[in-house]
Structure formats: structure tokens, C-alpha cells
């Protein structure tokens, strides 16, 4: 058997950066060493952006979604895109979004009689509820997604909690868990950390870090309220936000309004992965109060540098966290979250053990995970071939 042809379908891609984009790129980069990989996605907003990957990127027309930095792909209205897709002999389709491009991927697989699998990366029901403010519309849209997912040969989820949620929504069988990972390795180079501390004028303050989209769905304003509470307690800290998004200006306004300008920095996007790893290494605590995420890559990246994360309890993204063992949990309350931070650093011996356990329990490397994914693809192809041969 020669190299297999793999199609990865995603509704957004570089130069836009989010967790799902990074997952698909991590898959495609590693799979391209053993297979022919094609990523199907919409065109980017930056007309000067050029794809430079070890795999082929095939883009379709799109239209902007108002009031967001996302776009709506229009693959079926793009003859060139559809012709290119139909000219390929894919062996397996893996959809990473259940919307327009994902639908095209499923339809292609059904026509060709090849396996199609998909991964649940997001709490789509929360997206719908937030955008439409209607439980009825959200229910109808979730039903449509579940209908598409039930067409798959296999569905995967990034953790057990999200698998249970979608099984409850009507999936015929509970998805298998397929964890996320990171390309980071633990950094023992303290020279860069010392340089970063000097650059940001950090002395004996505790360093808190948030990395991700600067978007209110990440609960970023809650964090500023927490920092104000800590400031009032005379707790010394430096808070660093890394990322970009639609609510950067509002975040900056709230920082200034609370008089936190000297305590908080928004650095924007950092594309240099080695440098980003050093920021994770420098941080004493990764703060991630998101109620939206399912299994964020950043919490794995933090664990790779032995930096524990403080989550909100009962959130999906914290489902594999054991409080005070491999991470920390706080109530969805500003005062409680702030008090947990003070408590965490009141026992440094216990804190150091949590740092080690976060690394041990939560760190996953993409190289190992993608080898597993490739074997799963081969199994799906064999199963489909066996079924087709009996017809």
C-alpha cells in the first residue's frame, strides 16, 4: 500500500489562529511525512498571505460574518474549489467542523464510498445560544449538527465530558476520546526567562498568564475583576495577556479604568513558538476561567512548562483536573477565584508538587498523538474496504 490521501476539512484556517486551526496544522504537518495531506478551508482575509506548508491547502470563497473576525465558507458556490476536490482520490475524510466545509467533506466521502470521521472541538450549542439568544433556534441548529455527525463512520471528542454532552444531544453512539497535544517540550533554559522578566520589569511579583483569543467568550473581563480584587488585597502580581481578538480595546479600557495599567500587559499575538513556550515557563500560574472551551491547547502548553492552571469548577475544559493535584479549581465568583490564587501561593511546597503533577498528568506530545491518529485512519480505511467488498 502506497501513501494514503487524507482530506482535513475546517471552516477557518491561517492566517486566522485559534485552537482548532492549530490542531489541524499539527495533524497535517506530521501526517504529511507519511501521507499525502490536503487541508480544505476558506480563503483568508489577508490578500498578501501565502500558504507555506508541507501539505497542500485548498481554499474556497467566503463571506465575512458581521461583527466577528470569522468568515462563512462558501464551498458550493466556488466551482474551482469543487472541481479541485472532485479531482482528488481521497482515502479518508476528517472533518473538524460540522458546518459548510464539513458538510462538503461528508458528501464527498459518501459519494466515493470512503470513511469519514470527525472531531468535536467546540460546544456548538453555546455558540448558537450566544449568537441567536434563542433556545429554540439553538435546539434546531444542534439537531442539524447531530444529524450530520450521525453520518460519520466515527466521531471523536477532545475529552470524555464533551463526548457525554453530544451523546446526550442525540448521537447514536458516544464519541471516542482523542486528546489534544502540543509541540512544546519542557524548557530548562532560564536565560530567556530572566530576560523576559527584566523586559517586563518583573521582580518578586507572581506572574499570571492568559494565552488565547481576546474575546469575551473566554471570560476575560472576569479576570480583570479578579485582578482588581487582588490589587485591593495588596497581592503583588504581573498579568500578561498574549493573543488578539475582537475585544482587545474593551479589555484595555477596563484595565485602565481599574487602575491596573502598571500591573497588566497585553502583548498581542506571538507567532514564535519557542518564545511563547518561554512565556509559559516564566508564568507562575496560567489563569483560564473560560466556560466555553472544551479542551484548550493552552492548558496543555502550560502543563508542558510545569505551569499549573486555575480553572472554574464544573467547566468542560477542566474535566480532567483534580483540584490541588494537577491543577486548581475555583467557583464562578470573583472573590473566590482571587482567594484561590492567594491560597495557592500560601503553600509553596504543595504548589511545586502540583506543577510536577500537571506536567506528568496533562502534557501530551503531538508526535505521539498523531501516530495514533494515523493508525486509526488505516483501521477506518480497512473497515470501509471490507464493507464495500461485500456489496
Automatic annotation (TrEMBL):
Q: Where is the Glycosyl transferase family domain?
A: 198-360
Q: Where is the signal peptide?
A: none
Gene3D superfamilies hit by this protein: Glycogen Phosphorylase B
Q: Where is the Glycosyltransferase subfamily 4-like N-terminal domain?
A: 18-183
SUPFAM superfamilies from the UniProt entry: UDP-Glycosyltransferase/glycogen phosphorylase
Q: Which GO molecular function annotations are given, in alphabetical order?
A: glycosyltransferase activity
User: Which top EC class applies here?
Assistant: transferase
Q: What Pfam families does the entry give? A: Glyco_transf_4, Glycos_transf_1
Q: Which InterPro entries match?
A: Glyco_trans_1 (IPR001296), Glyco_trans_4-like_N (IPR028098), Glycosyltransferase_grp1 (IPR050194)
> Record keywords: Amino-acid biosynthesis included?
no
Keywords from UniProt, A to Z, are: Glycosyltransferase, Transferase
Keyword match Secreted: no
- Give the enzyme's EC designation: 2.4.1.-
Q: Which PANTHER family match?
A: SULFOQUINOVOSYL TRANSFERASE SQD2
From the Swiss-Prot or TrEMBL record, give the protein name.
GDP-mannose-dependent alpha-mannosyltransferase
UniProt organism field = Acholeplasma hippikon
Amino acid at each position: 500500500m502506497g501513501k494514503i490521501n487524507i482530506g482535513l476539512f475546517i471552516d477557518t484556517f491561517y492566517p486566522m489562529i485559534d485552537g482548532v486551526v492549530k490542531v489541524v496544522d499539527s495533524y497535517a504537518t506530521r501526517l504529511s511525512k507519511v501521507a499525502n495531506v490536503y487541508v480544505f478551508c476558506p480563503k483568508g482575509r489577508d490578500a498578501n498571505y501565502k500558504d507555506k506548508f508541507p501539505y497542500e491547502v485548498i481554499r474556497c470563497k467566503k463571506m465575512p460574518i458581521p461583527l466577528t473576525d470569522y468568515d462563512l465558507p462558501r464551498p458550493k458556490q466556488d466551482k474551482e474549489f469543487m472541481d479541485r476536490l472532485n479531482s482528488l482520490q481521497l482515502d479518508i475524510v476528517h472533518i473538524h467542523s460540522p458546518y459548510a466545509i464539513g458538510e462538503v467533506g461528508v458528501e464527498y466521502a459518501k459519494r466515493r464510498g470512503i470513511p469519514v470521521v470527525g472531531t468535536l472541538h467546540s460546544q456548538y450549542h453555546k455558540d448558537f445560544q450566544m449568537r441567536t439568544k434563542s433556545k429554540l433556534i439553538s435546539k434546531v441548529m444542534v439537531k442539524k449538527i447531530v444529524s450530520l455527525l450521525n453520518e460519520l463512520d466515527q466521531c471523536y471528542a477532545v475529552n470524555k465530558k464533551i463526548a457525554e454532552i453530544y451523546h446526550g444531544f442525540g448521537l447514536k453512539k458516544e464519541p471516542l476520546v482523542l486528546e489534544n497535544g502540543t509541540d512544546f517540550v519542557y524548557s530548562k533554559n532560564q536565560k530567556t526567562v530572566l530576560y523576559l522578566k527584566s523586559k517586563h520589569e518583573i521582580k518578586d511579583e507572581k506572574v499570571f498568564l492568559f494565552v488565547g483569543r481576546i474575546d469575551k467568550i473566554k471570560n476575560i473581563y472576569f479576570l480583570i475583576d479578579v485582578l482588581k480584587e487582588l490589587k485591593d488585597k495588596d497581592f503583588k502580581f504581573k498579568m500578561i495577556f498574549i493573543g488578539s481578538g475582537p475585544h482587545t480595546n474593551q479589555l484595555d479600557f477596563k484595565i485602565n479604568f481599574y487602575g491596573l495599567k502598571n500591573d497588566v500587559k497585553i502583548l498581542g499575538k506571538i507567532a514564535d513558538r519557542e518564545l511563547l513556550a518561554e512565556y509559559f515557563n516564566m508564568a507562575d500560574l496560567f489563569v483560564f476561567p473560560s466556560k466555553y472551551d472544551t479542551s484548550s491547547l493552552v492548558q496543555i502548553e502550560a502543563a508542558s512548562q510545569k505551569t499549573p492552571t486555575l480553572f472554574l469548577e464544573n467547566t468542560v475544559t477542566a474535566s480532567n483536573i483534580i483540584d490541588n493535584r494537577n491543577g486548581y479549581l475555583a467557583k464562578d465568583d470573583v472573590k473566590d477565584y482571587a482567594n484561590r490564587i492567594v491560597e495557592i501561593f500560601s503553600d509553596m511546597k504543595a504548589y511545586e508538587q502540583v506543577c510536577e503533577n500537571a506536567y506528568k498528568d496533562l502534557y501530551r506530545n503531538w508526535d505521539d498523538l498523531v501516530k495514533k491518529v494515523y493508525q486509526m485512519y488505516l483501521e477506518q480505511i480497512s473497515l470501509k474496504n471490507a464493507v464495500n467488498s461485500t456489496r
